[in-house]
Amino acid sequence: MKDKEKIALFIDADNAPAAKIDVILSELARYGVVNIRKAYGNWKSPCLKSWEEVLHEYAIQPIQQFDLTKGKNATDIALVIDAMDILYTKDVDTVCLVSSDCDFTPLVTRALADGKTVIGFGERKAPAAFVNSCSKFLFLDEVNKPIQQIAVQGQKLKQDTKLMSLLRQAIEAVEDDDGWAQLGTIGQHISNHASFDHRNYGYKKLSDFFAAIDLFEMKKTHGSSDWVKDKKRAKALAD
Fold first, then answer.
1. How far is CA 42 from the centre of its chain?
2. Statement: the pTM of the whole predicted model exceeds 0.85
3. 47 Cβ neighbours under 8 A, 6+ residues apart
4. Tens digits of per-residue pLDDT, 40-53?
5. d(C-alpha 186, C-alpha 140), whole Å
6. How far apart are CA 177 and CA 94, in angstroms?
7. Long-range contacts (CB closer than 8 Å, 24 or more residues apart) made by 82-88
């Protein structure tokens, strides 16, 4: 039996919501065990009070970083240095970065080059380059909200040409001779080259996400397996 994946968690406490720590650890539990848990910030600041209250409960090690220069945050540099040290000295399979403001893209690409999986957590304001470079990225401000408040309607989704192109390419890559692609295989194909997560658009299930877009046809086989077909491509092949 393969050992469980070993995960190193690095939290930029200055730019992450402590109230979402349950969501973060629950998500990471799907991938393996979080052996290393560190949170960085100026712990003398009253702004980190909410994080102080959860450190012991979740066995998170606080790393003190003073604000050496007014207006400049040294926390990010300390986090990056620590993360690189751990990549070289510890047996780690997955790196998790929690931040919304700083662009950790160079760290992400370096970890990926070493064969690590990188999971990111943050809010919508997180830099796009950071979000897109991660193996998977989850927007914490979208999780567990009532679906009626965050669900993006199908018509709105269709206007995102980049997203539609990603979905269509994934379907085409794994479709059978009749143009049908198994939903689970589509999701796996997307995860191999993009940080896409349907929950970031307000849908708990990938099937609900596809069903909301009328560009795709869906069916079930054997009562459980979901299949998806690109209507536009199917029409073009039929003509």
1. 26
2. no
3. 14
4. 998 988 989 999 99
5. 24
6. 36
7. 82/10, 82/38, 82/40, 83/8, 83/10, 83/107, 83/111, 84/110, 86/8, 86/36, 87/111, 87/114, 87/116
